[in-house]
Amino acid sequence: MTTAKLDSLQIATLAIAGLLLILSFAISTPWFAPIVTLIAAAAALIVLVRRSPTFQFAKKNSVAAGAAGDSIFTPMRSNVTFKRVAGLKSVREELDEIVDYFKNPSKYKRFGVVLPRGVLLAGPPGVGKTLMAKAIAGEAGVAFFYASGSSFAHLYVGVGPKKISELFATARKHAPSIVFIDEIDAVGRTRGGARSDERENTLNQLLTEMDGFESHSGVVVLAATNRIELLDDALLRPGRFDRRIEISPPNLSDRKEILKIVFNDKPHSLNLAKLAEKTAGFSGAALAALANEAALYALRRNAEKVGQSDIDAIKEKVISLKKSGEWLEDDMREKRARYQSAKAFAAKRLGAKFEAAKLAGEFLPDHNNVSSETELFALLCARLAGIAWWRFTDEKGANFCESDGAAARKIAERYIAVYDPFDDEGGAQQLMKRATKTAIDIFDSAAIEKISKTLLENESAPFEVL
Ligand code: ADP
Fold first, then answer.
1. 129 Cα: distance to centroid of ligand 1 (angstroms)
2. Which CATH architecture has domain 252-322?
3. For a tag on the chain, would you pick the N or C end, based on fewer CB atoms within 10 A?
């Protein structure tokens, strides 16, 4: 209806504009022609611009963002409590204060204590950042506002900043409240560089809103990111996201707790402690998906309970879906531990740095961040040390050397390009052979077994204790 009406309006205006133009040539008064031409052109321009898809889209968005009052950011009441969150003890301790502040604001006011305005939760996907934010709102019993950083990223000028001020105005209206901005890096990336004026304006608006908070406004902003290194420094300054909390993937005992929670409402005959051991590197979200998919599978076969066969049927699907974790049966777990230990041992002895050896997942640094010849060669040896260990001990291989092999080739090529451009010893292949031999020459079986034992028990071993 609206489109047809406007289309005829557009045609009518253009027709009148054309008529005026013809008239202007017909009438010979000197001032008439330019003025009428100007009016006709302006009318045609206004109608065309107003009908353009860009204008219509921007208008629609700004109406949604502006006039809606509470309509695009509605306060939610979270029914999540800390009981639903497993592990993350230290995270919880840091955030307990915020819950207490919301529950007893007068206590804090009396002592003139100012709470952080913004808390940044940094960690890989699926580790419970959103869950934790909801739990804080649930425990404190305050309004919860959810927004995703990408929802502020608009191509149309002014929409992003407008949405930000709308969000904060609504949160203030419903204070005490918690604003949670997921994937804040979508708006909070370092300004400059590959410029996007609209994103910069949106970020500036966010900074302005945070600066404009009264210290007791009753609004606390929580934000989540898995790319903290991309964030603009201005966001991390005092008075903004000045408290940062790192959330790591769950360790063995955390995974056991998460599994208890996600299987709590599902009849099952599983040994959850054993399941936790087999799911090294799984995020909380991957474990939740594992439980859900297994329950669906059990339902499909009309089973009374979720059993191990249901887990076996869906585990690979969950790993590829969630891109997280490795499935390690007992024998593979031990094999993996020895493989990783050999890598960690060679890396440390030969001079490569890292924080801690891990049973699952990457722990060696990215070779692009390594700038000394010794360390680059050490890294090459370390990448090949797991495979070298199998040769050294005659152990049969497994399928987890693929990514190390590929990484080793890249390191070898870079090493030759940077430190040995006139290489006449056979290129990357020969260099990799030399690195494998170097690793084998320094192997100390007792030391590697010791690291391996620690990895089996704790799934990680700090650099200092290796
Ligand atoms: P993130 O925000 O870090 O990407 P989420 O909070 O969205 O992760 O987690 C997704 C789901 O994974 C949660 O809804 C929950 O079912 C499960 N989960 C993740 N971490 C935990 C945890 N620590 N305790 C219990 N469940 C968890």
1. 7
2. Orthogonal Bundle (1.10)
3. N
